[in-house]
Amino acid sequence: MTILLLFGCIALLIVLISYARLHTFISFLLVSILAALLLGLPATRIAPAIEKGIGDILGGLLILITFGAMFGKIIAESGAAQRIAEVMMRLFGEKNMQWAMVCIGFVIGIPLFYGIGFVLMVPLIFTVVYRYKLPAVYIGLPMLAALSVTHGFLPPHPSPAALVVQFNADMGLTLIYGFALAIPAIILAGPIFSRLLKNMPSEPLATFTAKSLPPEALPGTFNSFFTALLPVLLLLFVTGVNMLFGHHPALMTGLSFLGAPSVVLLIAFGYALVTLGLARHTRMDTLMQYCVEALKDVTPILLIIAGSGALKEILTATGVDKEIANLLQGLPVDPLLLGWLMAALIRACVGSATVAGLTTASMVIPLMEHSGTNPNLMVLAIGAGSLAFSHVNDAGFWMFKEYFNLTVKNTFLSWSVMESLVALIGLIGVLIMNYFLT
């Protein structure tokens, strides 16, 4: 009965978000309160549990997400993203334009949140399409596949970063495993799949051609690449040193501080503020305005994460987490596959990869504790599942349709299939890695 009540609450959450169009944060709070009442939590404990859940999850993520957003905004506004794109285009040339788009999407997708990356990079796609007279979907889909993969697989993006915190996974190892999965997923769902769509009719609007900065206003090539990739480089450096010299306690004491994800992003943000801002004579008040705009963009994401933390704490306080663990342990299904499937189903119903990932996390944490599943791989399995089955309830579906001026049918055949391919390839990769790591 308890499990049926839980799934009923999850179904209500989906209805409130998808059909009632209630804000996700409000939906999470209402469902959390209802779940607490139905599951027998005393009324005096409901509000403290919700507050504790919100505080616990945001405590480890607030710095990560806010500084990640501000860092990405400075990368974009300074022209570093444009410089990276121009260099990659020169390196690859017209014949290898798809691969150039993949690399640009991957490099830009690491520091930028998905929505920001989409809006910034689509004009570049259309500029290339008009300049070289190439098919829009054929050129654009590989870049968007790369953006999607970084959003679902790689910290410090919201969902994988939140999952790392909730599962007590290792941020550096998750990033390394994520890179290993990202490469085949991007190649197969991007350049290779889009070759089947070369003749798909698409007339993107000229309004969306890129408004670029003049060359003299752009930062240098090394500065642009190094600053954009600095968070990844720092995390990989600390993880590598830990693997090689982990037996030196004195060394690891210092690196444990420098390798904390929030500290890494704080360092990267400060570096970008100086090298892409102050050193190039951008006023501090202008830079802070960029940061304010970035924070406005991520406030809805923080609220979604806060709401998921409230539901998670209610499930813990009522003991449902242990019941779920006991039930799932009896199923003849690999926990990684189960996590992927749950995330995929919630994604199909809700439309948000972030909501799908975080809702799934609250249900599989007890299973993680009892099954001994690799937490780094579970982050990636849920991240992959949260990208599956994008359709009409996903904002990305409509952005792709409208920007590329496609029919609904062709949006399904291109965008929806690409997202599902990324999810399936990610799952296969996770299961293969788990076989060799266990």
Automatic annotation (TrEMBL):
Ordered alphabetically, the record's keywords are:
Cell membrane, Membrane, Transmembrane, Transmembrane helix, Transport
Topology within the bilayer: Multi-pass membrane protein
Q: What Pfam families does the record tag this protein with?
A: GntP_permease
In terms of InterPro entries, this protein maps to: Glcn_transporter
Q: Where in the cell is it found?
A: Cell membrane
| KW DNA-binding (keyword) present | no
Q: What is this protein called?
A: Gluconate:H+ symporter
> Where does this protein come from, organism-wise?
Sphingobacterium oryzagri
